Amino acid sequence: MSTDCLFCKIVVGEVPGDVVVESDRSLAFRDIDPQAPTHVLVVPRDHHRNLAAVAVDDPAAATDLLQTVAKVAEQEGLAEDGYRVVANTGEHGQQSVDHVHLHVIGGRQLQWPPG
Ligand code: AMP
């Protein structure tokens, strides 16, 4: 755990999270500022700064992250109509929390391209 990391604190329950799916390696909880009817964040329980880091350092955790995205989509009723998975990365990607997280966004027609 990284002591000053918001998502590490949600993983251990120090900060409340509206959890929708859990696995041994991952946690999925609702975004506090939803951009669509369904907006869930999926994070590995262990701290990795971005998708590249978790893929290289712990491939099993990266796989579990994607399997948890699939569970969220099923459980939230997004799988049939579709949804978007976003990993904002670094400064240009406007990543604001330095603990890798996949945004699962759906429940309405989404537009492309993003800004
Ligand atoms: P990003 O900007 O891609 O790093 O995404 C960070 C996301 O975390 C944003 O969509 C925020 O709304 C969300 N967020 C910030 N604080 C919390 C919190 N306490 N619980 C749930 N989501 C949060």
UniProtKB/TrEMBL annotation:
The HIT domain, residue ranges: 6-115
Give the matching InterPro entries: Histidine_triad_CS (IPR019808), Histidine_triad_HIT (IPR001310), HIT-like (IPR011146), HIT-like_sf (IPR036265)
| MF terms in GO | catalytic activity
Tell me which PROSITE patterns the record gives.
HIT_1 (PS00892), HIT_2 (PS51084)
Q: Where is the active site?
A: 101
Find motif (Histidine triad motif) and give its ranges. Answer: 99-103
Pfam families in the record, alphabetically?
Answer: HIT
Q: Which PANTHER family match?
A: HISTIDINE TRIAD HIT PROTEIN (PTHR23089)
This chain belongs to which protein, by name?
A: Histidine triad nucleotide-binding protein
